[in-house]
Amino acid sequence: MLLKGYCHHTLLAHADQHQYELDRVKKEWTTHHSRDSLPVLVMTDTVIQDLHIRDATCVIHYSFALSPLKFSGRLACMSNSFSKDVSKEKKKTPGCVSYILVTETCTTFPVGLQEIMTLVRRSGGHVSQELLDMCNKAWLAKQVGRVDNSFCHSLKAFGHCAEQARCKARHVVLPEVDQPGEGMPTAGYVKVLVTHVVDANCYYARILKHWDWDRKVVPRENTCLPLMADIGLYYSRQENKVPVLTVQVGDLCAVRDMQNTFHRVRVTMITATDFTSRARVFYVDEGKTEELEVKKLLKLPEHLAAVPAQAVEVFLCAVCPIDQDKQWTDKASAFTHALVSGKELEGRVALCLGHTLWVESLVERNVLQGIKATTNKHNIRRELVHVCLAEKNPDHVSLLRQACDGKIALPEYKPSSKAPPAKHGLKYSTSSPPPTATLPASGFDEVYVSAVEHPGLLYVQRKHYSRKLEALTAEVNNEEKLAAAPVLQQVAPGRLCVAVFPEDNRWYRARVQLLQDEEMCEVFYLDHGDSAVISSSSLKEPWEEVMQLPFQAIEACLGSILPLPDQQWTEESGDELWDMVFEKMLFAQVLSVGPSEHGNDNRYKVELYNTSAEYDIIISQEMVMQGHGVVSGSPEFVNLLFPEVDDPAWIESHPDPAEQICLLCAQLCQTSDPELMVELAKQIYSIVINNPTKHEAMRESRGVSSVCLMLGYCTEPAVLESLAVSLGYMVINSQANCEEVRTAGGLRTLCKLLKKDYEPEVQKQLIWALKHLALNERNKEAIQELGGLTALCQLLADSKSPQVLENVCCCLSNLITENKTNCSVVAECGGLHSVCQLVKSCANNVLLEHALQLLQQLAVLSANRAAMTEERSVETLCERIQNNRSDKVLVQALRTLKAVIFRSEENVAAIVNRSGVREVIERYASSHQSPDISRHCKDLLSKFGSPSKTNTVTPAKPSINHFNGRQSEVSTSNSFPSPDLNFNQLASGMKKPNFSHHSSPVQSRISMSRPSSCALNSNQSASLMKKPMISPQLQTKRPTSGVDSKNFSNLSNSASHNSATPYHISTRKAQVLAHHWERHKTRRPNLEPVPEGNGEMHQEEDDDYDDMPPLETTEDEKCQVSTNGDHKIQSRHPKVLWSQQKETVTLSVQLRGLSQKPNVTFVPTALHFRTFFKGTDYRLNLDLYDKVQPDRCSFRLTGSDVILTLRKEKPGPWPRLSRTKAKHPWLGIDFDRWEDVPSDTESEPDPRQTKNVPPLPQHKHKERGGLPSTLCNVMLPEMDISSDTNSHLHDSDHYSDSDGEVGGSGYKIDPRFIGM
Question: What pTM was estimated for this model as a whole?
Fold first, then answer.
């Protein structure tokens, strides 16, 4: 009408035009026109991109777009006119309009009609009935055209298809293709053998027997067994096994399986690649689908292909997935497969279309031969519903039969007498409203808490109805239906209505509760449990469609807790509960059901669980710990937590007191008498203490989890104290119990209790239990996540109790050991500052020792060491070393000081500059009785540089440096101590340098020598008699390979030449010591990041764990003794097997099952290994025979051991692994990886050997396996052949005791090489 009544300036654009014509059209379009002469552009889809028009205000579609992309391109022409204001006023006057012309001829474009209708609905427009009928007509025409398509699987399985608009399958019944197949049962009962399971309610089966409704057998030809026999007989002849040359989809062929059995298959799809062609085939007699190569298909003769398919498709009726899911879960399908696969089942025929059978009440029967009767073993539908893998679908069969009406003649259907009636039409109305939803009486149900008044009154919604509730809410808020709904007349209490909720302005189903006045009333929202006061005139009458779903707000209360004594539930308790449950999916377990107190149907006493974390959170327990209630002790609650109480059989089978801890916890939960509660808690403590070896029995009988439960429910301090100590003893030396405490919520409970203000005695025991739980690696992470580290650091800052502080320090030490994250968190939470202050002010030696140990652990991180510098921790430690007289404190202070000054020149300078500290350390190093204190003092002195007191000594002539083989000047004034110094002190200080952590690359290879006594004159001998002898470690009988032997002769001549100098020999000793001292002071360890398990170098974000030396262990630390018991954590060497190749050395640390990354440090002359595994602290500190390249060393975990690969600096054989010749009982030979390493200098003696090995006598050797008869000596590394130390070597498959052979290679080991 618009075009007929007006004349418009029209432009034309299409693909056949030249580009200059399109440019002219675009220019004309962009030219400014007056409002009454706006142009109209007629164009095709192909030129939309070329014109790039964006300012159109109206688009008229003369045809349907062939794709969504083209349709969006049309609408994009108006993109500049799109309104950004979506308010209702702007919707009435849109900035642009799109017209779609639809006529009867458009039914040939069904996809376009469906998309148009969807678009109109999404944009809020009204879909007319005419358009709806036209769309349905087009959809039906499209379905009729899909004759070759199979019937929709969802429609067959559930009676409806949720994706019907996009589904490519057929959704209507066609008489020409869906008539029941020949021989298919259409009514009665059937017995089938399930051959393949597709999902939970779809199977393929062979029909074994058929009865009518009167249980009379219907004759039926059995063609399965003859068919199988004919196929086997036919293909038993080789000439019949002819491959198919040309394969097409739909061909019937034969294939052979792994059991040499032949099957008929139909080709459903063919895929070709460059190398081979593959086909997807369907086994017509079994029902399964498989993909195989085309060349495996065999020709099938016509007489075998003519036999009907033996497998029919069977659907179990009246079930569907839970939560209205569109598909079955893998769990449901696997459960069904275990029930029905290969079983003979019986069922009632509900419908038959084509070769598909629908059955109900599919059961597996057992025949009782003695009484000639049968029983049902499994009812498949009932089993699926019972285990909550499916829900009932009563409309399934009725929907399918309705789809067949008027198309296929169906026989009479006799539904089961127990089957629920199918729903037809609307069931509820305003006069007959629906009931409130109910919770299942047993088991757990998923719920959401929708409203909370207080713990005694809350409302929950079942997740089962969540999608239906969303659909209902959308229906209630439909603008058209709301506008058409009349206003509620005669407002009175109890009237059902539809009311708006003021907080979100949305409409919900409601009930009038109370009339405030003539204009206002209070309403209760039936689906959410909230209440509001609104205007009575805003209430509307509900229509029948919104009354079909049960009311969703289920009244409930926490039945396991009560208000605090002599109090009522408060608003704060309700707010706390709401914070715990808001927008969280919970599990509800019903304790009991009673009448409602607020006009609803029932009131449920429930227990709520939050299972979203690793451990279950019990909501009532959280409320008790927050101080908002006490445990009720009701019988139903006790039976819920401790079902063993009412099970005499369980009590009889667990007579051991260690297995009855849960029964004592049940009594503890029931009673409210404080004295009785304390007595029961002490009984639990006594049982745990007296049964230290029955931790596993306590865990398996739920003793550990029961104690964890009661820790959260009890509020008496004395009870908490006993339970905490009991829990601590349960986890000692039991990693499994540590895991149980975490998963049972005990770890969370302890962390929460630490934040409460208890007496010091209770806090001490809570921390003591947490200290033992912190030995588990996963618990370390959990404690940090649960806020335990923050609570401990707060206690460290606030507590005044020495026992509490002592336990806090021990617990923090366990938490940060080998855990960089926790170490950093402690510093961030103020724990580092607090422990520094504690070390400054503490007067208790026991507490001071633990505080120093914690400070040492924190010093592992470089950032923490920098913070300690700001806290002046070095000065504090120096003061402790100067003034404290306790050996234990002194040892720990020295160890901590070594850790604090590591790689910190500023901290070293602070020690050197502090008056009197160096003298004290020197005095301790030389004269203290404790070897640990002396050793630590020597290590510290090695880091300070030259001694504080030096005298200038001018030698008679330039000295010879015997450490680099060159003649050089040695400044005796600065490079070595004065001969007037106490040489006992110097010799003892340098007698045994500690190279376990820092080794000089040169010093590890050079041995020192001095003139023999025969080369000295009388004066020199006298001088030696007066001065203490130098340590034997500084002497060698032979020069090393790195020192020229001429220098040693020069040394003797020099000594004879300077016989007039009375202190010359002492000066030479001082030169040697000063050289070591200076090089020990200036050396830096060549440390690199520890490689990952794959051997590749991996740089951590902080390399402190890689370059920090392993913490030294005193005898006191080797066994950690708990404050309340005698539990010890063993520290031992792991068993190590080693082997070597020409360029590498391989160590196998025998720790089977180790999964966590150990702490491994490689230095040029040493190896450090440490890990905590199965309650044992495994440590390996090994000085190597020769230098290695740390940057090329690596380690990896294999599951059975840890492989350490060391790269030698100089290729060649090592006669032994360690620097010293000491026998190590934990060290053995790895014969599997050993390779004989030829030496380039086999004729030359090893300069590091202290004595020559005499030549071996000649032995006659019997030839074996073509080997030469001459003796071949194999240099094996040093090993101990005693039966007690290396017995594992004799058990090896690669070791033979006969003839002293190794691995049966024919090479003999001479006894004199053993132990070299």
Answer: 0.47
